[in-house]
Request: fold
Amino acid sequence: MMKKYYSEPERKIPVCTETDVLVVGSGPAGFSAAINAARNGVDTVLIEQSGTVGGMATAGLMSHWTGETTGGFYEEILDRSSDGVDRHIINPEKLKIVMLKMLCEAGVELHLYTFACGVIMKGSSLCGVITESKSGREAFMSRIIIDASGDGDIAAKAGVPFQKGRKDGKMQPVTLMFKVAGVDTARVKFIKNFESSYGTLDGDLQSLAKKTLPFPAGHILIYPTTLPGVVTCNMTNCTDVDGTKKEDLTKAEYTCRSQLEPIVAFLQKYVPGFEKCFLISSASIIGVRETRHFKGEYMLTEKDILKARVFKDWVVTKAHFNFDVHNIEGSGIDETGIQEQFPQYKGYTIPYRCLLPKKVENLLLAGRNISGTHMAHSNFRAMPICANIGQAAGIAGALSVKEGVSPRKLAVEKIQKILKKSGVRL
Reply:
C-alpha cells in the first residue's frame, strides 16, 4: 500500500532558549556531559524525554554499575550515590535525587518531558534542536550540541553516516529489568553472567531456564540490591528489535512484560531462596543495548580493546569490561560474546576522535553512540565508561565555546589537562 502524507502548514516555532552547550539525553553519558560543561563555565541546557534523569541507571532499574573505569567523574557519581554497602550497586531512587541535586548545583538548566524531534542546520553545522512537549513545539538553539540520546537520534537527523548493529544489520536483544521481593538472600547464589550457573536437585539452573522459560527468554541473571529481601533480575528478553522504531519498542514492551509472571514462577519453583518471592517493580523504559553505530574521525575496534591500546588523543582511560554480546537469536550469551573468560584485564583508552562525527560540525557524540564497531560497542556501552565519555564530551563542548572553534579543531591536550585535574590518569 502506498504511504499517504499530510502537508503540515508552515508555522513559526518559538525559541525556548539560546545556550552555549545543549545536551540531549540524561543517561549516565548525558548527565555527565551536562555537569562537566556547566562546571567549565558555560551556559548548559539538558533536555530529557522522560520525567527523570539517569536513563537506564534509574528509570531502567539497572542493577549495578557494570563495567569499570578508574578516576574521573564516574568516581564522583559513586561517591555521591553510594548506600555505603557496595558502591557499585545502584539504589535507583537515591540516584534520581542525587543526580537532580548535582545538576542543580552545577547550574544546568533542565527540561524534562521534552522530546527532541528535529534538528536545525546551517549548511553542515548543527545549530539547534526542535522539541515537542506539553509546552508545544519549540526550538533550542546552541553553539555546541552533545548527542547523548543512546540511539543517536540527533546525529542521525543531522546526517551523520551510520550503520545499525553488526554487519548484517542485526542488533542485540532488549530487556526489561525488574525486581522481586520476599527473597531469602542468605540462601541465594547470585548469577551475574551467562557463563555462571550451579546445579540443583532439578538440574543445572541455566539449562533449566533455557528449557522452561518462554522463548526468547531462557537465562538467569540475578543481582543483589541495597534493600533487604530484594533482588534485581535481568531475565526478560526480546530479539529482532530495532530500538529506533516505535513498532518494535511496543512489541518489546509487550513481549518482555508477558515473560514476567513465568519468570517469577520459575524462580519460585527452581531457585533456592526464591520460594516466596514476588514481583515488586519493573523498569519504566525498555533496555535497548544496540542500535546505530556512527562513523567518526576514528572507529574504535575490538582489537584496540584487546590490545589495551593507548591513544595519543585519549579522553577516557582505564576503561574495562568484556564483550557483552547477548544472543542475537535467543537467550544467553552470543557465540561472539565473552564475559567471565574475557582475556584482557588491562584498561583501554578511548580517543577523542570517536566523539567527533563525520560530516557535521558543532556536534559531539557521547555514550554508546560514539564511533565503534559492533564488538567494541558491546564493551564501551557499559554505564561507567559512558559516564566518563560524557565527562570528556562536556569538557570539549565548553572549551569549544570558550575558544570559538568547532570541536573538530579543538586541541585535545586542553581536554586532557582538565581531565587530569579530575583524577583521570593513563
Q: What stands out?
A: The mean pLDDT is 97. Residues 188 and 255 are 27 Å apart (CA to CA). The radius of gyration is 21 Å.
